[in-house]
């Protein structure tokens, strides 16, 4: 007997939706049934790339939700749309995979969380770095007790000029669509911290500002062109604006934060958007050793006190090899109803931490997360 095909409905067909290529092309039992994106060419591109020849292009997201062939809804829409799309999917009895972050406000995160709790449906969050072999090895070493217990972590995400320019030229530069930068971009890192520390932060403090991508600095690209290439050109985006320095924006381009977790682990986190030496690093200071994980070099250094450090080099894409793994495990959830490794609860926690950090920055005071966790039952 032929195995029943599982059908996915897709809301949002931008670049990140092409994660589904690894789902459908490697698992013939999974097909896309319907797609909605305001840009119909993007919908067609996704259908072609996933070989879902029978999929229909929809004119409204509601048409995808109402598609009776779909058991799963994959949400890749802009962040500010997540609440509406995810809750509608749950109300229609559909399982959900949602790209990070969960939502752009704590209230919207709470609404999604409560909507899911009313169901017995599966809910996966696209925290792709949890699936990277590099970070899974970090977790393995921490759980083994080899370097003792975590005392503190110094973490960062300092991206290159082309990456920062891309952000400052597309919809992510506006908080009404994306939320703050530390939510849209850095929620991956904050999720990893929650996972590694196995606790939740009680308090957050933060400072930051928009100090580089400003009109006063628009002369900088002319000073530092490399072999005729402008390092601030950004990645191709047909919907982007021309200049990252003069674009309308209300997100910031540099931020530092301090977190204290319930189990007394302390964390510092830094994020900047224009760096000659990009880095995404976590430095673990532990009771019996030290570990440094760095994503750009895909390197992991580990040393016990009194012993020589060993280094492990991994291979993979810009997400540390996580894209293939998350697609494979999503396929397993779709085909076999396996519980996602990164669920809606992880999506909730990572997003709430990011939003609390930015609220601390805006109010210039320490943000107490405990009343929020209490309200959410965390």
CATH superfamily of the largest domain: Dihydrodipicolinate Reductase, domain 2
Q: What is the succession of H and E elements?
A: EHEHEHEHEHEHEHHHHEHEEEEEEHHEH
Number of E-state strands = 15
CATH topology of the largest domain: Dihydrodipicolinate Reductase, domain 2
User: Span from first to last CA?
Assistant: 45 Å
| Global structural class | alpha/beta
Strand portion, in percent?
Answer: 15-25%
For the record, the CATH class of the largest domain is Alpha Beta
How many distinct folded domains?
A: 2
Radius of gyration over C-alpha positions, nearest whole angstrom = 21 Å
Which terms summarize this structure?
alpha/beta, 2 domains, Dihydrodipicolinate Reductase, domain 2, Rossmann fold, nine-stranded mixed β-sheet, six-stranded parallel β-sheet, 378 residues
